[in-house]
Amino acid sequence: MSEESGPYCETPPAESPERAEGPPYAECVLCRKPTEYAESVKGITLCPVCEWQEAQRTACSG
């Protein structure tokens, strides 16, 4: 591992849908709380908390 890359794996940023400007918001598929995404967004939508937890689960573990 080079000095420049640091201790973490390099991963490309995840593609995420555009944030909604206002209600109605889509439900989180895990906890059913409102997300930051519009109801019209296709695919899996997660609230900020579940999104962060999912990122932690999929992050490099070393």
TrEMBL record:
Region feature Disordered, mapped onto this chain: 1-22
Record protein name field: Uncharacterized protein
Source species: Streptomyces drozdowiczii
Source superkingdom: Bacteria
